[in-house]
Amino acid sequence: MKKILIATNNKGKAKDFESLFGPYGFEVQTLNDLEQDIDVEETGVTFEENAVLKAETVSKLLGIMVIADDSGLEIDKLQGAPGVYSARYAGEAKNDEANIDKVLSELQGVPEEERAARFRCVLAVAGPGIETVTFSGSCEGTILEERRGSNGFGYDPIFYSPEKGRAMAELSPQEKGQISHRGAALRQLEARLPQLLDALGGQQ
Ligand SMILES: O=c1nc[nH]c2c1ncn2[C@H]1C[C@H](O)[C@@H](COP(=O)(O)OP(=O)(O)OP(=O)(O)O)O1
Ligand SMILES: [Mg+2]
């Protein structure tokens, strides 16, 4: 089976990639599947910088083509926060529950029409002998007043999709892929994948 390494330690992201790449016959692997511990420090100030940093660092280390994902939530009322700091919003420990609590308390009393937000995702593909390329996607919604649903990961329980009429965490992985920032970025990447794999001489 063709394998694709995603330079992430986030198991929730990995599931999104599986439901999107599975139908194309790719087995998705992540940094959690490797014997060595790899954790790239995210020193960039944009999603794009961090995605490129993660993809190029891991690709150079292992000598293979990899895809990295940097993503996050932008809330208009909070001037775009948490943004690139989404994973670390409530502290370095990267705790989804604490991050959600922090957002909910900051938006306490803010009416629905002022709770607009979007998820953003930038994917970077890096590999030996190819120029690093990036693809991006976004997904518009609003922030709920309380959690709904138990699917997905991260901020999914408080992100309402007007397109689906449900919280992101109430969607199946397939439904999420149809509307998500990651789904949008991945569809662009898919269009370029044959070319990228060709440039690598059929590595995968
Ligand atoms: O579809 C999503 N549904 C809900 N929340 C999401 C989503 N996509 C990103 N997010 C949130 C999770 C985390 O708070 C941050 C990503 O941070 P980000 O640095 O890209 O990922 P991460 O540190 O969890 O894993 P890694 O860097 O190893 O890929 O945005
Ligand atoms: Mg990260």
Task: Explain what this protein looks like in three dimensions.
With 204 residues, this protein is an alpha/beta fold. The protein has a single domain (2-199), classed as Alpha-Beta Complex (Maf protein), CATH 3.90.950.10. It is built from five helices and seven strands, in the order βαβαβαββββαα. It has a seven-stranded mixed sheet. The longest helix is centred in the C-terminal third of the chain and has 19 residues, at 181-199. The radius of gyration is 17 Å and the shape is globular. Residues 42, 87 line the site of magnesium ion (MG). It catalyses: XTP + H2O = XMP + diphosphate + H(+); ITP + H2O = IMP + diphosphate + H(+); dITP + H2O = dIMP + diphosphate + H(+). Its cofactor is Mg(2+). The active site is at residue 70.
